[in-house]
Amino acid sequence: MTLTSSNERLMTPTNVATVNEPIDDPAEAPAELVFEIRDAAVDYGAQRAVDGVTLDIASREITAIIGPSGCGKSTFLRCLNRMNDFIPGAKVSGQITYHGEDVYGPKVDAAEVRRRIGMVFQRPNPFPKSIFDNVAYGPRINRYKGNLADLVVEALTQAALWDEVKDKLKKSAFALSGGQQQRLCIARALAVSPDVILMDEPCSALDPIATSRIEDLMVALKRDYTIVIVTHNMQQAARVSDRTAFFTTDVDDQGERTGRLVEFDLTNTIFTSPSDPRTEGYITGRFG
Predict the structure, then answer these.
(1) 252 within some domain
(2) Domain contains 243
(3) Does residue 242 lie in a domain region?
(4) How many folded domains does the chain comprise?
(5) pLDDT for 213-254, tens place per residue?
(6) Residue 275: phi, psi to the nearest 5?
(7) What is the structure's pLDDT at 265?
(8) CB of 3 within 8 A of CB of 98?
(9) In the prediction, which pLDDT does 13 show?
(10) Are 221 and 154 in contact (CB under 8 A)?
(11) The domain spanning residue 250 has which CATH number?
(12) How many angstroms from the chain centroid is the CA of residue 3?
């Protein structure tokens, strides 16, 4: 698999690393690794925002990133699809590979990285266009050659929104509710055939009913996509994720804050028997 520009749908690589977890069912194959992250760090000018992150993210799983405010969760998430490239003075170091290829390699097309590794943001951000044109926007700029109308239907169906909008595709996306707008943004990401969907606190601006729909959608989507979610809601992480990474903040003598990965494991392990007392303290509400 190459991260040079391409309009083709993703193909599963034949030679992949795997997560070496105990297998309850001998017929179950180890999970394919999508990301291998080694000692990743992010600097904003002279300030180190995130330091020393090492973890693997497996295919068709939901990986949750939790931790107190300011611990670098969103900063780390943006490393995975090079969104930090848009922040002046930001520098990513260490190694982040996607299907074995260096995301920050000199010949890598950053636009192709973001097509394959889509992003859904904290607040719904539909374009000032119709519902149809929101979903069709990405395929159009990528010069999609197939039937655009069918692609829009497919993306809206995958995002569990088609039945609610099929009779108003020409209406403004702003006419939708907040939860519908967020699912529209998910459909917009799906329309360009990503491999991975990054979600940065996608439910923080939504009511409980809309949140439940987004959570159900994430669980359904992981059959076909790898999902990485940043969430401040520990209950949400426990409900939807397969693995959880806990980040915290170190503060130096000058008061400078640096986010660090404390622990990464199966979600059930993180929430029932964490190995680090800082994780247990956060999960039980003693700090954070």
Answers:
(1) yes
(2) yes
(3) yes
(4) 1
(5) 999 999 999 999 999 999 999 999 999 999 999 999 988 777
(6) -90, -15
(7) 97
(8) yes
(9) 36
(10) no
(11) 3.40.50.300
(12) 18
